[in-house]
Hints:
Helices cover 56% and strands 8% of the residues. The protein is of the alpha+beta class. The chain has a 4-stranded mixed beta sheet, covered by helices on one side. A hairpin with a 2-residue loop joins strand 3 (60-63) and strand 4. Helix 1 packs parallel to helix 3 (71-81), helix 4 (93-118) runs antiparallel to helix 5 (125-143) and helix 4 runs parallel beside helix 6 (157-166). The longest helix is centred in the middle third of the chain and has 26 residues, at 93-118. The termini are far apart. Keywords: Cytoplasm, Transferase. InterPro entries: Glutathione-S-Trfase_C-like, Glutathione-S-Trfase_C_sf, Glutathione_S-Trfase, Glutathione_S-Trfase_N, GST_C_Tau, Omega/Tau-like, Thioredoxin-like_sf. One of its GO terms (cellular component) is cytosol.
Amino acid sequence: MAAEKNVGLVLLNSSLSPFGQRCSIALAEKGLPHEYVEEDLAAKSDLLLRSNPIYKQVPVLLHDGRTIIESLIILQYLDEAFPDTRPLLPTDPYERAQARFWADYVDKKVYGCGSRLYMIKGEPQVPANIEMAGILKTLEGELGEKEFFGGEHGFGFLDIALVPFSTWFESFDKFWGVGVAEVAPKLAAWAARCMERESVSKNVFSPEKVSDFIGEMRKDLGIE
């Protein structure tokens, strides 16, 4: 059941961060009230720097003053710290391990390759485009015929890990010619289903806003 009182949670975040968006989605899915603190990443607060002195980045979850960092760790912590709320991970150990594996794949592959694409154009872009198309097809294979990656458990851990990056899909096509609807149509349909969830639609940027941001960033870097 959704929590009905303050449970001592503070999320230090940036609305720009797909990793922070994961945490906001998870908190919404679990119905956990919390204080949200928007961080200016160009002028990081003393609280953020004290809370995460190693990486000095968002997201950071404070629970009764104790610090939890790294988005996937935060998601797992929320499951363990609030067992009476809607679970994100399945209960079966093997299924939990699989969900963690694929979430790690999202970070290493989708974010890793997507970040490289932002910074290149011309001939070097070709192998990166091929790599991204392969990544999307691999994720579509894992999704299969399921409505969500959580399968019979519904929208869950892996869905939350990936869905903030689905707002990049339009940019993959616009800037790099990787059309997700053509390369991985089931994955594109999954993204559309996720956006129908209030927890998602209220906590991620629209694809149009992401595209505008990427375009401005590439101009600033002299890529466009």
